[in-house]
Amino acid sequence: MALTQVSSNKCAGGFQKVFEHDSTELKCKMKFAVYLPPKAETDKCPVMYWLSGLTCTEQNFITKAGSQLAAAEHGIIVVAPDTSPRMTTHTDLLSQTALPYRGCNIEGEDESWDFGTGASFFVDATQEPWSTNYRMYSYVTEELPRVINANFPTNPDRMSICGHSMGGHGALVCALKNPGKYKAVSAFAPICNPMQCPWGQKAFSGYLGPDRSTWEAYDATVLVASYSGPQLDIFIDQGRDDQFLSSSQLLPDNLIAICSEKKIPVIFRLQPGYDHSYYFICSFMNDHIKHHAKYLNA
Amino acid sequence: MALTQVSSNKCAGGFQKVFEHDSTELKCKMKFAVYLPPKAETDKCPVMYWLSGLTCTEQNFITKAGSQLAAAEHGIIVVAPDTSPRMTTHTDLLSQTALPYRGCNIEGEDESWDFGTGASFFVDATQEPWSTNYRMYSYVTEELPRVINANFPTNPDRMSICGHSMGGHGALVCALKNPGKYKAVSAFAPICNPMQCPWGQKAFSGYLGPDRSTWEAYDATVLVASYSGPQLDIFIDQGRDDQFLSSSQLLPDNLIAICSEKKIPVIFRLQPGYDHSYYFICSFMNDHIKHHAKYLNA
Description:
Two copies of one chain form a homodimer.
Chain A: E1 3-11, E2 14-23, E3 28-36, E4 45-51, H1 59-64, H2 68-74, E5 77-81, E6 88-92, E7 97-101, H3 136-151, E8 154-164, H4 166-177, E9 185-188, H5 198-208, H6 220-225, E10 234-239, H7 243-246, H8 252-262, E11 266-271, H9 278-296
Parallel strand pairs in A: 4-5, 4-8, 8-9, 9-10, 10-11
Antiparallel strand pairs in A: 1-2, 2-3, 3-5, 6-7
């Protein structure tokens, strides 16, 4: 459970930090970012987990999303893990140079931008050679919250989850598979029905194998159909000019249809002109944090 | 004056765009970013110019500073040029691949991170081999505003300038050398007295030569001493834990002392705990844009 601080920058009255630790779930070193609002100096704070999209590390969100001012205002700790085990670097203390090392050194992990490194899809893989290390679902829902609650001034009963694209899929799946665990869930341009889109089919084939019935455990649209638990107010922003919407990778209509059928409330905002980038995310980040704050600080 | 659009992303209700053009002043292709607030769809808007720090391109500010929401709110166009001529890329239209080409191909331009590429210091160089291309002072104060006013819905009488570190020095110098041209000036952790710091001495020696009297034209502290023009309300934020403050690269005390003597009002905020990074900048960006809006929209 020992954490190594990689960086610490004062931001919006609090601190944006990055830590590295040995993950027992993933059997490799992992980095995560944590924003500590000013309130965390004196009080226990709720935690919002953020899951990033394909190719992202823990850095993209903390440098580009503009989340810190709103997190500071609402007194929320924001945790953003890396999106998979990955090759990373450590600093040689003698020469002060960065040396590469493998997170887990899996053959083929760096061959695709949408599979392997940076593309865990937040599942627990069952197929070789991924099943030993690619256990991001358990990491995000179990190990990481344990690490965060043990090391930071959290209120462990108050957590929520949010994400973008592949991470939006991850956020929805984590919330739907764990009724009551997350007080709120929201997403930017999430992959809503991965079983039916090329990204999801490639990832689930590789991590979960050819039996499509095993894929259902990680498909938000399927999970909504069988959801029974406390009311979830799902909040989704989607750019209308998002290239991955038009190429049928995201399929929000499928999720919304099932939610309507099941009478699960969804706030779905189709934002005209917006694409899939962090320019879209930063435009509406404040709204998402406000949504989470409403439930986390209730 | 023809502009080539490099990118366009909807952001905060407006558009964050990047353009490339052939600069006559710099005799090379240059990129700049421009944020167009929603108001620019129907009205002429004032323009805030942003000058970035050492090593930055036009990208750093637009991805990390969190400026767009406030610029949208106050109806301000924000222009962020690159910080020097530089090697850059163009897209081969046939193969759709990025090809490198030289901005101006000056021997030694890429040898230092604090001189040459990414480190123009916003002066008009007088020394070979820099004097042909490194004319960033004239580019920023003359050519770029002409290009912007000719291509975007600006109110050409309402411009202001802001910057960080080397770009904070640039912003102060541009405002002090052109009384009345800029309605407001502010800076994050500016290099305030470059003649007295290692960064400035290296840059000015290279671009302006050994005669230190020529350096005075680009030193904010010297320029304040002889300033006569409309009242300037200089606004500066400085992190107290900024490593470049403690290593005497920034020297704000020298500027403040002269301002006090000359009764030039300065709002100087020494922000405890903050460093030199964009985490510092994004923490106070809203305050700076509000300051500029007060004068630009008056």
